[in-house]
């Protein structure tokens, strides 16, 4: 993993994280740090030629590779990405260390803003993942439910539709006709419900492009409600897949906080 | 406009050619230093505003989360058999949550409870919205029913237990209208309006209202309800018109379910 930070007109910091804990830091092409240690959590401390103190730290994430932060005299620096940084107002190209756009004078996002944007992006990514999961779950559960309900309908064949089914279901009595209707609807119900949820998530992910906070807020509420509704239908589901559920909710809540912080900063 | 390599007169940073503002301090480079305020000065501290907005969102999470937790607990408890007392207990717990939330914010919500005269034009608009809502919601449920979707009964358990009709109307029609309007159009919409613009707050409360009913099949109809009641609250600056329409709609549903 290689990272680059152009910290001003004269200085560029590069960090290389190799296999087996290899860490190399260079400033303007000169090596200032080389080490090999596994799981070291201490930041790599070094100095720039002008005397400013730098520190590179690894920050673990929920999922995937850890984030790498560079701080100069305690201030977080914007990483130099592959794509050039552009002003959100006038789209002119800027340097990562510019605090203001040279063309229109609008403030450029800070490193903290980029971090918040990343969290919002993760949350909107989670909404898209949920949309795909609802489609997959809908199709899978449709076929599973269909196999079960077809077998149940065969058992009801030959019974009088007006007769009351002898065994109460979840405390309620049904006629055979009502029961047949309920059973026939069940797989379609599962499919329709999941497709509605997938559509909601697709709609929210589109809305999130324009206005992230309301979209992520509603997606979080919808997802939690789905978990609760599943829990009421079958309490065993509350404990199933709890880790992935917590990760999704954590991504969404982090996204809400980040979107709120960005919104407040823009106001 | 400065030449490449010139320095900013305010901060001394060397600027690139063609720039009109210093990328370091935001100083206008065409003018003399100090002649125009730097954008830095226009920036206000956002920490306090973020904390206020986060507090408002946390209030929404608390009310919504507690109502959802009540649904979960009572939903699991009444899985084996639907008991009317369970519905009553759930309504009582929901009412306690909502009344506490309203009491904690009463000063800021007081305007919603004031009775004020409504102009003829205003009342005509509210009646028009109510009519449109009843038509659209009825059409949606009619479509579901004719598509073969089994619809649950809201008053079935109470009727089977032999409860009097007035009690059924009170529990199924009036109580939810009061509790839900206070929760969603009262506490939640008001808190959201402090974070978002009025339109976004209106949409979010409607979405939260619809999802709290726990059935994706009725999300569209209840989203419409949330929009309608929320619009009435915005337009009239009162909680009562929405509450009245909500209670009437619930009463219509009960009336349809009553035998004969």
Give a quick summary of the entry:
The complex is a heterodimer of chains A (267) and B (260). Chain A has 267 residues and is of the alpha+beta class.
Note down, in words, how this protein is organized.
The complex is a heterodimer of chains A (267) and B (260). Chain A is α+β, with helices and mostly antiparallel strands. Chain A has helices spanning 111-156, 176-210, 212-233, 242-266, and strands at 2-6, 12-17, 22-27, 30-36, 44-47, 53-59, 67-72, 75-76, 85-86, 93-94. Chain A has 4 helices and 10 strands. In chain A, strand 5 (44-47) and strand 6 form a beta hairpin. Chain B is 67% helix and 0% strand. Chain B is built from 10 helices and no strands. Mean pLDDT of chain B is 86; it is low at 32-44. Chain B folds into 2 domains: 1-43, no CATH class; 48-257, no CATH class. With 260 residues, chain B is an all-alpha fold. Chains A and B meet through helix 2, helix 3 and helix 4 of A and helix 2 and helix 8 of B.
- The end-to-end span of chain A amounts to 36 Å
Q: How many strands in all of chain B?
A: 0
How many domains in all of chain B? 2
Return the structural class of chain B.
mainly alpha
Based on DSSP secondary structure assignment, what is the total number of beta strands of chain A? 10
Summed over residues and divided by their number, the pLDDT of chain A gives a mean of 85
Distance between the termini of chain B: 85 Å
**Low-confidence runs of chain A (pLDDT<50, min 5 residues)?**
none
Beta-strand portion of chain A reads 15-25%
How many helical stretches of chain B?
Answer: 10
Largest interface, counted by CB within 8 Å of the partner chain's CB: A-B, 52 and 50 residues
Q: Which strand order does the major sheet of chain A show? A: 1-2-3-4
Let me know the largest β-sheet of chain B.
none
The quaternary state of the protein chains shown equals: heterodimer
Tell me the strand percentage band of chain B. under 5%
Quote the average pLDDT of chain B: 86
Envelope shape of chain B: elongated
């Amino acid at each position: 993993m290689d990272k680059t930070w152009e910290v001003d007109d004269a200085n560029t910091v590069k960090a290389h994280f190799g296999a087996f804990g290899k860490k190399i830091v260079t400033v303007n092409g000169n090596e200032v740090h080389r080490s090999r240690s596994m799981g070291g959590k201490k930041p790599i401390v070094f100095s720039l030629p002008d005397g400013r103190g730098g520190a590179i730290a690894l920050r673990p994430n929920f999922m995937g590779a850890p984030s790498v932060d560079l701080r100069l005299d305690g201030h977080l620096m914007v990483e130099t990405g592959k794509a050039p940084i552009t002003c959100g107002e006038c789209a002119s190209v800027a340097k990562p260390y510019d605090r203001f756009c040279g063309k229109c004078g609008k403030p450029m996002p800070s490193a903290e803003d980029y971090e918040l944007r990343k969290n919002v992006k993760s949350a909107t990514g989670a909404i898209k993942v949920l949309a795909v999961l609802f489609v997959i779950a809908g199709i899978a559960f449709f076929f599973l439910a269909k196999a079960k309900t077809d077998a149940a309908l065969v058992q009801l064949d030959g019974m009088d539709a007006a007769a009351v089914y002898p065994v109460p279901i979840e405390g309620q009595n049904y006629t055979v006709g009502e029961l047949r209707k309920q059973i026939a609807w069940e797989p379609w119900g599962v499919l329709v419900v999941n497709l509605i949820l997938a559509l909601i998530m697709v709609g929210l992910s589109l809305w999130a492009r324009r206005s992230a906070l309301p979209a992520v807020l509603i997606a979080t509420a919808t997802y939690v409600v789905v978990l609760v509704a599943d829990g009421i239908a079958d309490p065993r589901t509350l404990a199933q897949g709890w880790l992935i559920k917590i990760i999704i909710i954590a991504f969404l809540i982090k996204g809400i906080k980040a979107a709120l912080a960005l919104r407040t900063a823009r106001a | 406009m400065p030449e490449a390599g010139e320095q900013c007169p305010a901060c001394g940073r060397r600027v690139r050619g063609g720039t009109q503002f210093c990328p370091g301090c935001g100083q206008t480079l065409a003018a003399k230093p100090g002649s125009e305020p730097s954008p830095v000065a226009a920036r206000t501290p956002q920490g306090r505003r973020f904390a206020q907005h986060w507090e408002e969102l946390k209030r929404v999470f608390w009310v919504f989360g507690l109502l959802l937790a009540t649904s979960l607990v009572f939903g699991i408890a009444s899985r084996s058999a639907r008991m009317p007392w369970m519905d009553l207990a759930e309504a009582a717990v929901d009412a306690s949550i909502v009344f506490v939330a309203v009491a904690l914010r009463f000063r800021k919500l007081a305007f919603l409870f004031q009775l004020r005269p409504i102009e003829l034009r205003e009342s005509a608009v509210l009646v028009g919205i109510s009519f449109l809502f009843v038509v659209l919601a009825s059409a949606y449920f009619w479509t579901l029913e004719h598509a073969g979707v089994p619809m649950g009964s809201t008053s079935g358990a109470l009727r089977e237990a032999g409860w009097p009709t007035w009690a059924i109307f009170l529990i199924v029609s009036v109580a939810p209208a009061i509790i839900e309007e206070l929760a969603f159009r009262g506490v939640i919409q008001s808190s959201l309006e402090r974070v978002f613009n009025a339109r976004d707050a209106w949409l979010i409360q409607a979405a939260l209202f619809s999802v709290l009913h726990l059935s994706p099949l009725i999300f569209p109809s209840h989203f419409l309800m949330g929009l309608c009641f929320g619009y009435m609250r915005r337009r009239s600056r009162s909680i009562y018109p929405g509450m009245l329409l909500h209670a009437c709609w619930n009463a219509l549903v009960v009336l349809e379910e009553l035998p004969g």
